[in-house]
Design brief:
CATH topology of one domain: Rhopdopsin 7-helix transmembrane proteins
Largest sheet: 6 strands, antiparallel
InterPro entries: GAF (IPR003018), GAF-like_dom_sf (IPR029016), HATPase_C_sf (IPR036890), HATPase_dom (IPR003594), His_kinase_dom (IPR005467), Sig_transdc_His_kin-like_C (IPR004358), XrtA/PrsK (IPR014265)
Number of strands: 13
Strand order of the largest sheet: 3-2-1-6-5-4
Organism: Qipengyuania profundimaris
GO molecular function, one term: protein histidine kinase activity
Structural class: alpha+beta
CATH superfamily of one domain: Rhodopsin 7-helix transmembrane proteins
Number of helices: 24
Catalytic activity: ATP + protein L-histidine = ADP + protein N-phospho-L-histidine
Distance between the termini: 90 Å
Helix content: 55-70%
Radius of gyration: 47 Å
CATH class of one domain: Mainly Alpha
Pfam family, one: GAF
Shape: elongated
């Protein structure tokens, strides 16, 4: 068969290369203190030579047979020298006769080789010679496997660490030979498929064997992942199932006629139905998982994978994802393979209130709360409740009497896990019984305790964020009210000052005229304030339009002229782009603050001019002034004021209003000398030169 010849050539060539590389690696990198190092190098080299001969010549040639015999002698000697690592080549003399017997059986192949090439002239003699050689190789493989088992099982603990890789490789090599020659003996000829794989098998076995000679080999361990173990166990179950089906089909071959065909068709239908129903079931997968964990692993959980899965479950985001409480109960249930669960969170009274459930049956939903006494006990003891223990009458801290009847009587309820954050109970998770029933053990308790604390921190953080959002809403409301109260306070100050002056100048017609103007302006201001009330605290700055900065300053001066000495010292026309109403409101704040900071005889001065690019407006007073620290850290901070009884939002609101127009507000002050506030707004004619959209400021912060 052409494909078999090609496959044999490729696999034997690969085996020769791998064995040669392993021989060189052991010679250069292997542990020089081991007395079996040289025999190992020779055995690997002879194996490479055998693979090279098998790839170069046809099967059955004398040179191929002779190189295989040499290879087998080398590996037997290597096995014998491995006993020397434990000193047993001197003390366990009973091992030597076994090696001598195996070497004698292997040496008989020289005789069989001679007979096969000289005296096997009939097909019967050829077949007899082949079967005898195969039987001898089976005996050698069985004897070698027994010695490998004795080598590893009888070794001391330190020697097992040293020999485990070599013993595993030797066992694999002779196990393959045992199967190969057993099949060959049964068939009466070499199996073509297995013959094509012999070279590749030799190369595969050589790698762990060479690895065992590394200086750090005693610290190396083969630790298959749990996923690999579960899949391997699943494959074993499926393989056993298929072998059973094949055996039944083989047995049915003895039947004849329509009965045989009827039984075979029925068997195929039954086998297919059973495979579709039984193999994909969650209960079978759970049984495989429990069996693998029980017999293959020291610990129940793969902590790395569990933590990765837990993090992925909690960290999922998106509009179509579940809420954090639902993700929390799912993350906890996934650890114990629980099919469903519930989450109770503490309320203001300390009771536990149902907050979320994951796959819990709607018709089995419990009452909405759990007693506060149970919550207090779980918080104090951090006790994970095993409901099966409570049903059996076991009581640790008196929790059995505090568990509600509906929870104790529900066979689905399996465990209750308290969620503690800084020794304060945040919630309680109820886990359903896994599909494969088992008892909670110390590993469940330890892992659930750690994970529950992490979950509690997430839930507490979410609750804190919700509280901050709610507090922010109240703060926004209070800030709006503070702005309103500030504006009303300014109007009240104007009215009070007007009343004081009216007592002195009520008989003067000029004062009465100014008083009417002031009253009209105050009424207009109140109406404007009511209209603007809904816009406080929002980002709507209104549409920007051109207006004359000098005209706005002049109206503000006229507004305060009746109550204090306010003058417009310099007035140049400056056509700027902004919100005239908002700017006037900001100027009112600045002028009122300047008046409050000045004495009754001190005048407040306004100046308006242009520098060719922007319009400038100065508000200057000669009052108390402000310290450098307050100017830097407190002036534009909301609710921070240097005036007794002040709200501390006038300067902040004025700056934000001017910023919304694309301008800026700067402040200079010296204690005992006075202050100067500078409003800068872009001119309409130069707006395009600044390269700034009307509603997007491009100035530095003050």
């Amino acid at each position: 068969m052409a494909w078999a010849s090609t496959a044999s050539y490729v696999t034997y060539t690969i085996g020769a290369i791998v064995c040669a590389i392993c021989a060189v690696w052991v010679a250069t990198k292997g542990d020089t203190s081991r007395n079996d190092r040289t025999p190992a190098i020779v055995a690997l080299a002879l194996t490479a030579n055998w693979c090279f001969a098998a790839a170069s010549f046809e099967p059955g040639r004398a040179i191929v047979e002779l190189t295989e015999i040499a290879r087998n002698f080398a590996w037997l000697f290597v096995l014998f020298r491995h006993f020397a690592n434990d000193g047993r080549d001197e003390t366990l003399r009973i091992v030597r006769p076994a090696f001598v017997a195996l070497c004698f059986v292997e040496a008989l192949h020289f005789v069989l080789l001679l007979v096969a090439h000289r005296y096997a002239v009939t097909p019967q003699l050829v077949s007899l010679t082949f079967e005898t050689a195969a039987m001898f190789r089976v005996l050698v493989a069985v004897g070698a496997l027994v010695l490998v088992h004795n080598l590893y099982v009888g070794a001391a603990a330190a020697s097992r660490q040293l020999l485990r890789w070599n013993a595993a490789a030797l066992a694999g090599m002779w196990a393959f030979d045992l199967n190969y020659y057993t099949v060959a003996y049964i068939l009466g000829s070499a199996p073509v498929e297995l013959s094509a794989l012999r070279g590749l098998a030799a190369g595969i076995v050589a790698i762990p064997f060479a690895l065992g000679f590394a200086r750090a080999a005693s610290g190396l361990e083969f630790r298959p992942s749990r996923a690999v173990a579960f899949r391997f166990l699943s494959l074993l179950v499926i393989g056993a199932y298929l072998m059973l089906m094949l055996g039944l089909a083989r047995w049915l071959d003895m039947l004849t006629g329509d009965l045989a065909r009827l039984v075979q068709v029925g068997l195929v239908i039954a086998a297919g139905a059973l495979a579709l129903i039984w193999l994909p079931s969650a209960q079978l997968r759970g049984w495989l998982r429990v069996t693998a964990v029980k017999h293959l692993f020291k610990h129940r959980y793969d902590y790395r994978n569990e933590w990765i899965r837990f993090t992925n479950t909690i960290g999922r985001t998106g509009f179509d994802e579940t809420s954090l409480p639902e993700r929390a109960i799912k993350a906890l249930a996934d650890i114990t393979d629980s099919p469903s669960g519930m989450l109770f969170l503490t309320d203001d009274d300390g009771a536990l209130e149902l907050a979320a459930d994951w796959r819990w049956r709607e018709d089995e939903m419990p009452p909405p709360t759990l007693p506060s006494a149970l919550a207090a006990l779980l918080e104090q003891k951090e006790l994970i409740v095993d409901f099966d223990e409570g049903r059996a009458g076991i009581d640790h801290y008196g929790e059995r009497d505090l568990i509600p009847d509906w929870l104790r009587d529900d066979p689905t309820a399996w465990a209750a896990v308290p969620l503690l954050h800084f020794d304060r109970l945040v919630g309680l998770a109820i886990l359903a019984r896994p599909l494969v029933t088992r008892k909670l053990d110390w590993e469940d308790f330890d892992l659930l305790t750690v994970v529950s604390r992490q979950l509690a921190s997430y839930l507490a953080e979410q609750a804190g964020q919700a509280a901050l959002i709610e507090a922010g809403r109240f703060d926004e409301f209070n800030r709006r009210m503070a702005f309103v109260m500030h504006d009303i306070k300014n109007l009240s100050s104007q009215m009070s000052l007007l009343l004081r002056n009216a007592e002195k100048h009520a008989d003067k017609p000029e004062f009465r005229a100014d008083m009417l103007v002031t009253l009209r302006n105050s009424a207009d201001k109140l109406n404007t304030l009511l209209a603007r009330l809904g816009r406080y605290g929002t980002k709507d700055k209104g549409a920007l339009s051109p207006f004359d900065l000098a005209s706005t300053a002049r109206r503000v001066v006229d507004r305060f002229s009746a109550i204090h000495s306010v003058s417009l010292l310099r007035s140049e026309s400056a056509l700027v782009l902004g919100d005239e109403e908002g700017l006037e409101q900001a100027l009112v704040h600045l002028v009122q603050n300047a008046i409050d900071a000045s004495s009754a005889e001190s005048s407040v001065v306004l100046e308006v001019y242009t520098d060719g690019v922007s319009g400038k407006l100065h508000v200057i007073d000669h009052g108390q002034g402000m310290s450098a620290t307050f100017l830097r850290n407190g002036l534009f901070k909301p609710f921070v004021s240097s005036k007794e009884g002040g709200f501390g939002i006038g300067a902040f609101e004025a700056r934000e209003t001017i910023r919304g127009m694309g301008g800026r507000l700067d402040a200079e002050s010296r204690e005992g000398i006075g202050s100067r506030f500078t409003v800068t707004l872009p001119l309409q004619a130069t707006k395009h030169l600044i390269g700034q959209a009307p509603d997007k400021p491009n100035y530095e912060d003050a």
